[in-house]
Every structure is written in C-alpha cells, then in structure tokens.
Amino acid sequence: xxxTEDDGSLRVxxxxxxxxxxxxxxxxxxxxxxxxxxxxxxxxxLRGNGPAFCAGADLDSVADLADPEAFARHGQRVANTIEQxxxxxxxxxxxxxRGGGVELALACDVRxxxxxxxxxxxxxxxxxxxxxGGTVRLPRIVGEGHALEFSLSGRVxxxxxxxxxxxxSRIVDDPREVATSMAExxxxxxxxxxxxxxxxxxxxxxxAAEAEGFAALHRANVDDIASSREE
Length: 231
Hints:
- This is Enoyl-CoA hydratase/isomerase family protein.
- InterPro entries: ClpP/crotonase-like_dom_sf, Enoyl-CoA_hyd/isom_CS, Enoyl-CoA_hydra/iso.
- It comes from Haloferax marinisediminis.
- This protein is of the alpha/beta class and 231 residues long.
- The protein has 10 helices and 10 strands.
- The protein folds into 2 domains: 181 residues, 2-enoyl-CoA Hydratase, Chain A, domain 1, CATH 3.90.226; 32 residues.
- The longest helix has 28 residues.
- The protein is globular and about 60 Å long.
C-alpha cells in the first residue's frame, strides 16, 4: 500500500506495509509510480512506515514470477519515473533498506539517513541481484570500487558507513525536515537545477542548457535579485 500526503509544497509518499517491512509487490510499484507522477509539488519525500524504509521486492511475489525479466523492467520503470520526475525526490531512509529499497533510494535526487538506517544488497546470498537499475546507478553514485564490494559481499552497512561511501549525503534525525526546508526554496530553481545536474548529454550541450536555465531564472526573479542586493 502506498499513502500520499500533501503538505503545501511537499508531497510525502509513504510505503505502508510495515508487517512486510514495506516490501513491494507489482501492485505497490504501480501505486508508487502513480504517486510520483500525479503531483505538482516541487519536492517529494519518499519514506517507509514502521521500522524499515523498504525491504525491496516482496519475496512471495518474486518466488511466483512467470516473467522475471518483465518484473525487473517494471521496477526499472518506477525507478526511472523517480529519477526523471520534475520534482526533487528525497529518500528519507529510516531503518532497513534492502535490495530494491536501496535501488529506489538510488533513483532519488537526495538520500538522507537517520541513525537507525541500515542498507544492503543481499540478493547475492540467494542467487539474485538488484535489477531495478542498481547496477547502473550504484557505481555512478559511490564509485566502482564501493559498488562492487557492497554488491558482491551482500553485507549490511550502517548510516555512518553509508555516509562515508557516499551512499547517503547526510545523517539526520528527521528526513521530513530536510525535504520541508528544500521545498522552501524557489520552485523553478529546484526544477532547473535538477534538470541540469541530471543531464547526461555532452559537455557543450550541457553548458549551453546551463546558461539558458540561468537566464530564464534571472528573467523570472530579477526584482527579487535586486532586492537581495540592497539588503
């Protein structure tokens, strides 16, 4: 089950299956995708209810898969929706994130952890691996060395080690405060900055788009910029 709450400029999306450590079935993946797609909020906080952020794919669903490749593609599509959303998506990792839960967090723009957070890719222990985009995003975010050791060992890291690896950017008591603070920033700036930092084209095209984005923001906010100079 996926719950949504709209609080001004912030949408809070909660994975709400605490009895299953917020493990995701195909129906939950569809609901999560819809919760990201149908909001105009500039910032989305993705979190889990209870003692886990997300345990990944529900193993009952995985065991009964008729088409495992389609299931992998399903999770990849949802992760891509998160990554490509016009909103800034913050993963608030409180408690356990495993497998697909880590992969969904990797698709988010910002990952913050509470001191209770633990993260792991245990698929290797049962003859699987993360296939919701993890093999693409993990080395991009933490580097190839950390990505290989983390995935091949199947071990669990705590919040401090996740911060050291670059898997999360901050350790906080309340991820919602981080998302709320971010939502107080200029909304157009948030969107354009995300677009520019996510751009995978060549340098020349990215630099041209950066200049165009800066000019668009300047035109939209010239009065506020002038007022700030006078303060």
